[in-house]
Amino acid sequence: MTPIRRAPTAVRRLRVVRGWSRSSPRPFSASPHRGFKDPSFRRSLALFRAFRHEQDDPDACYSLLARDAVDQVEAYDGSVAGRVVVDVGGGSGHFTEEFRRRGAHAYLFEPDVRELGEKPPDGAVIADGYLLPLSDGVADVTFSSNVLEHVADPQTFLSELARVTRPGGLIYVSFTNWLSPWGGHEWAPWHYFGAERARARYRRRTGKPAKHTLGENLFAVHIGPTLRQVRARDDVTLVTARSRYWPFLPEAVVKAPGIREVATWNLLLILRRCPP
What pLDDT, on the 0 to 100 scale, is given for residue 238? Predict the structure, then answer.
């Protein structure tokens, strides 16, 4: 297993590269890694097919998702080359590795050592997303993919993401909302009939306990309340709120109260850090 760096080392490394990354914002250029137009049916279908094989081929699934996510970051913020990226809750490190492939100084902070897998990225740090071992404003991009529904206090989590992002820096946050068809994760869509019933069904069908338990490591996060809370914050500005995977009009579906809680599938928030 690749050694896992401890927090002080990671902090020192970030401080070193942070000074080098204080360049003027880079102009937008189309990513050479872009494989699918976003949004498009072709892209959504490819991601859906990959998700169907998440259990038997996780590398292919998450490598595709990582390429797609970094494409989204670059679409809103230009090339990540030379920038400091903090990946919070990135699990096995597919997102961190994709950022690094594109020239970013990317660092993974993951609270659960079991999620890192056998070969975590070099320099990965075991750290709680509520209290990252980083100085204020060290990151040009702070990235969190499908983590918000796994924290009990989303607003404190967002505050920590904002704290470590430099003024004007980009914050990428996506999460699976509870009323999405995928809201119950491995026991979806049976969560519509109740979490405990869905978990019991999963155990009967697979012969093993479900990974997620509502109220312990999975929480019912909804789009409407989340958007109101984000818009009320004074440390970030909302650039866009859109469906991460929706094949057409991804921002329009999020503007439809009620419908959005089901149809959005997965909410993507692009935020900018406000000056302190």
Answer: 98
